[in-house]
Specification:
The protein is elongated and about 90 Å long. The protein folds into 3 domains: 138 residues, Adenine-n6-DNA-methyltransferase TaqI, Chain A, domain 2 (Alpha-Beta Complex), CATH 3.90.220; 104 residues; 202 residues, DNA methylase specificity domains (Adenine-n6-DNA-methyltransferase TaqI, Chain A, domain 2), CATH 3.90.220. 37% of the residues lie in helices and 15% in strands. It is built from 12 helices and 17 strands.
Length: 455
C-alpha cells in the first residue's frame, strides 16, 4: 500500500495559532465497522502539539492496538474545521494517493483483512499492535478511479438496504428493553398479580403484616442464646415519610427490617489493606466483585481468587447462598442473588451483602424490587454520597424501602415474571441472531466487491 498511499504521513500544524481549536478524535470516537465518527471534542493546537497523532480531512484512520483493530475501529476523517485534526496515538494514518478514501476504507474493514492483521501483530500480551510495515507492504488492488467509484457506489447502495434492516432491529431491541422495564415495574407494584389477588384475597391487612413481621423479628432475636443480656434495637424504618399506597395486604419495610437477625446479615466487603488487588491469583477461593453482579443475575466475571489462607482471614465477609448483593462503589445499584451452589467466596469492598429473613421475603423478590420499583430506585440513586466517587453506605441501605406482599404472592410474582422474561429473552435472541446475520451480510458484500463481482 505504500506505493499508492502515505502511511503515517506528517501533517503540518505550524501555521496554526496556539489557541486555535482543533477537532480531537479519541479512540472512543470511532465506531466499530461502520466508519462512523463522533465529532464532539476539541482541543487547542498547543494542547496537541506533542504526544498525539495528526491527520487531515480524507485520511483513513486504522486502529493499530488490540482489541480495537480486531473490532473494526477504522474510519475516514470527515471535513473538519481547518482541514486538520488530532487524536489517539493508537491510530495508523493512511493518506491515499491514487485511491479513493472510501475504497481504502472498504478494503481495510473487511474481516478477513483484520484477521490477517491480527496474525501479524507484535508486542506484549494486551499491548499487541499492527506494525507500520504491515500497512506499508500490504497489497491492495488499484483499479481506475471510475471503477473505484462504481464499486464504492454499489457497496453503499447495498449497505443502505442493510441499514434499513438494522434500524428496524434497533427499534425491536429498544422495544424489548422497554417491555422488560415495564414487566419489572408491574411485578413489584402488584399490577402483574392483580387478578391473582382478586381470586386469593389477603388474610391480613398491610398494617397487620407489618406488625406481625416486626413482632416475629423481635421474638426471633430474643430466642437467640448469643443475644442473651443484650438490648433489642428496633431496625431502621423506611426513609420515605409518605410512601405511596400499596395493594391490599402489602406493607412498606426497610432493608434493615427484612434482613435476618443472624450475625453479619448486613455486611460490606473488606476495606483498606485487608484485601489488596495484588493478592488476587488464578486459583484458590473466589472473590466476588462488581463484574460478578450483572443486571439482576450472578456471573463468574473476572474469576478473581485468593489463597485459602487469605480466605480464612476474611471469613466474616463470606458470601452466603441466597444472599442479595448490591454494588455500592464505582458502579452503583446493580444487584443479584448469590446462587445456591456458590463455592466458597468472599465479597469485595465494592459490594454490600444482605441475608434476608426468608420467612418474610424471598431473595428473588427483593432483587426484583431493588431493580424495578420506582420508589426503591429513587431512594438508591437519590442518596448516593460523594462527588468524584459516589457510593452507598450501610446507613443509606438500611433505610431503603421495599414493598412487601405476603409470601404466597411473592412466589406468584416471581413465577409470572420469570415466564414473561423468558419471552423477552427469546425475542432478544432472535434479534441478536438477525443482527449477526446482517453483519455477516456486510462482510459478504465486501468480499464480493473485491473479488470483482459487483462491478
Amino acid at each position: 500500500m505504500g506505493d499508492v498511499a502515505e502511511i503515517n504521513p506528517r501533517t503540518d500544524f505550524t501555521h496554526l495559532d496556539a489557541d486555535q481549536p482543533i477537532t480531537f478524535l479519541p479512540m472512543a470516537a470511532v465506531a466499530e465497522e461502520s466508519g462512523a465518527i463522533r465529532l464532539t471534542e476539541t482541543r487547542t493546537a498547543s494542547d496537541v502539539s506533542k504526544g498525539f497523532t495528526r491527520f487531515q480531512t480524507g485520511d483513513v484512520l486504522f486502529a493499530k492496538i488490540t482489541p480495537c483493530m480486531e473490532n473494526g475501529k477504522i474510519a475516514i476523517v470527515p471535513a473538519v474545521p481547518g482541514g486538520v485534526a488530532a487524536g489517539s496515538t493508537e491510530f495508523h494514518v493512511i493518506r491515499p494517493d491514487v485511491l479513493r478514501p472510501h475504497f481504502v476504507f472498504f478494503y481495510l474493514v473487511r474481516r478477513a483483512l483484520r484477521e490477517d492483521a491480527r496474525r501479524n501483530m507484535s508486542g506484549s500480551a494486551g499491548q499487541l499492535r499492527v506494525p507500520t510495515d504491515y500497512l506499508r507492504t500490504l497489497p491492495i488492488p488499484v483499479p481506475p478511479l471510475e471503477v473505484q467509484d462504481q464499486l464504492v457506489g454499489r457497496v453503499e447502495e447495498l449497505f443502505v438496504e442493510i441499514d434499513d434492516g438494522e434500524a428496524a432491529l434497533a427499534d425491536a431491541r429498544a422495544g424489548v428493553e422497554t417491555y422488560r422495564k415495564a414487566l419489572l415495574k408491574s411485578a413489584v407494584t402488584g399490577e402483574l398479580t392483580a387478578d391473582w389477588r382478586r381470586e386469593n384475597p389477603p388474610t391480613e391487612t398491610g398494617g397487620d403484616l407489618l406488625h406481625r413481621i416486626l413482632t416475629d423479628r423481635r421474638a426471633t432475636w430474643s430466642r437467640d442464646p448469643q443475644r442473651r443480656g443484650k438490648a433489642y434495637v428496633e431496625p431502621k424504618r423506611p426513609t420515605i415519610d409518605q410512601p405511596p399506597d400499596l395493594p391490599e395486604g402489602w406493607a412498606w419495610l426497610s432493608l434493615a427490617e427484612i434482613v435476618s437477625t443472624q450475625e453479619r446479615s448486613f455486611q460490606s466487603g473488606p476495606f483498606g489493606s485487608s484485601l489488596l488487588h495484588s493478592e488476587f491469583q488464578a486459583s484458590g477461593k473466589l472473590v466476588i466483585g462488581i463484574d460478578n453482579v450483572r443486571d439482576g443475575f450472578f456471573s463468574l466475571g473476572s474469576n478473581h481468587r485468593i489463597s485459602p489462607e487469605k480466605f480464612d482471614q476474611l471469613i466474616k465477609y463470606k458470601a452466603r447462598p441466597r444472599d442479595i448483593v448490591i454494588t455500592v462503589m464505582a458502579t452503583i445499584g446493580r444487584t443479584c442473588v448469590i446462587p445456591d451452589d456458590i463455592e466458597d467466596a468472599i465479597i469485595t469492598k465494592h459490594l454490600y451483602r444482605m441475608s434476608p429473613s426468608t420467612n418474610v421475603v424471598l431473595p428473588m423478590f427483593v432483587n426484583l424490587c431493588l431493580r424495578g420499583h420506582p420508589v426503591t430506585l429513587a431512594e438508591i440513586f437519590g442518596n448516593t454520597q460523594g462527588q468524584t466517587r459516589p457510593g452507598l453506605n450501610k446507613e443509606i441501605l438500611e433505610g431503603i424501602p421495599i414493598p412487601v406482599p405476603p409470601l404466597l404472592e411473592q412466589e406468584m410474582i416471581i413465577r409470572r415474571h420469570q415466564l414473561s422474561a423468558q419471552d423477552a429473552d427469546e425475542g432478544t435472541a432472535i434479534i441478536e441472531s438477525q443482527s449477526a446475520a446482517t453483519a455477516a451480510l456486510r462482510q459478504s458484500i465486501l468480499s464480493a466487491a473485491f473479488r470483482g463481482e459487483l462491478v
